[in-house]
Amino acid sequence: MTRDEAMQAIRASVALGGVTPLFELDRDAEIERLTADLVASAIEPAAATILGVAQNDSGLKQLVAQDPPLVIARSGDNWLGYLPGVKEFFLAYGPHPGRLNALGFHSSDALAEWRG
Fold this sequence. Notes:
Blueprint: H1 3-15, H2 27-40, E1 42-47, E2 50-53, H3 60-66, E3 70-75, E4 78-83, E5 88-96, E6 99-107, H4 110-114
Parallel strand pairs: 2-6
Antiparallel strand pairs: 1-3, 3-4, 4-5, 5-6
Helix pairs in contact: 1-2
């Protein structure tokens, strides 16, 4: 996967609609702004090592064991994880891709996962 493909995966996720909780009056404008910010945070995808999962009963730990995750966007110590086999996203945090912990929630909604 390339950075361009990562950006396409993010945009495709947003195009499907989602449940990202927002409280702004103009939801569409806010989704557009958040999408632009997330796309701008896209990085060259890298293999990720998930050391722990905070929400253990979410099933993410099992998915990561079956579908080697990538990280495709970054802001500080927050990383957007991606499971290419199931096309789902998750939020991870840590100093670099080889040493991450995941929040545990995962879905096809890139914005919802990115916002935690």
